[in-house]
Ribosomal protein L11 methyltransferase (Nitrosomonas cryotolerans ATCC 49181), 305 residues
Amino acid sequence: MAWITLTIKVDAAHTEALSDGLLELGALSVDIHDAAAGTAGEQLLFGEPGEPAEEIWCDAEVTALFDESIDVAAIMQAVTEVAQLPDQPVYHLGHVEEQDWVRLTQSQFSPIQISSRLWIVPTWHESPDPAAINLILDPGLAFGTGSHPTTHLCLSWLDAHLQEGDSLLDYGCGSGILAIAAVKLGASDVIGIDIDPRAIEASRDNAVRNQCDQSRIAFAPAHDEINMGSRVGIPVDIVVANILANPLILLAPLLMRAVRQGGHIVLSGVLREQAEDVKLIYQQWFQMSIADEKEGWVLLAGIKK
């Protein structure tokens, strides 16, 4: 099956009416964008996050997706009337061919080498190095494909510093990738915590897929403090949290208590310009430093005093 894209140039006053009219006439989707995008005349719009922009482009283009069987001439005549346009507007057509969208999406994720012995391998790929420690990963709906710099930073730290028999808490586990890596690198007791039930589900599935010893790894909702405390001998040897700077600051007292004296805290999801603010909070309890940096993101690591 193929589809047709119908792109119509329109002024700001009629953009919304044209968009609504195309949907009423059977468009599968509608996109509004600047007709001058990519040129010197491109108009930048600004607004508060989550709020609509206060204005629309002076000259916009509305692109609608239709089934290829539509009568374009009839659609154009009808939408001109519905949107109360003075004249039939200029338009052009495009074609979208049928594709294997699953295969296309999967092609965006290839195996990622973290170190000489550690790889992330999507479930649909063969491992480039079967003898390596391979993290077989299906991201599902959770963050943590391994492609983001912060995930790479955390995995590199674990690969270099985790010792056989360490206990570890992964706070904000996402897909479970860091907790699973910890088990495969030799941790004895690991728990992953997340506020998103989908992340817990994806993490558990990924742990099974990686044949992790279920006596050494578990996942629980972030609010389940009793479960967290009873499953792992809190405080632990290592707490790793790959989330964002503001949550890391707010969670500092909780994460601090979860680390034993002399244990490690590993924090990422922090931009370079945010690093000092996060470091300032945690250095009350830890000897903190910037351990690594990648593409503008930093990894903070500390040893509890």
Notes: Confidence is low (pLDDT under 50) at residues 47-51, 225-230. The domain at 143-304 is CATH 3.40.50.150 (Rossmann fold).
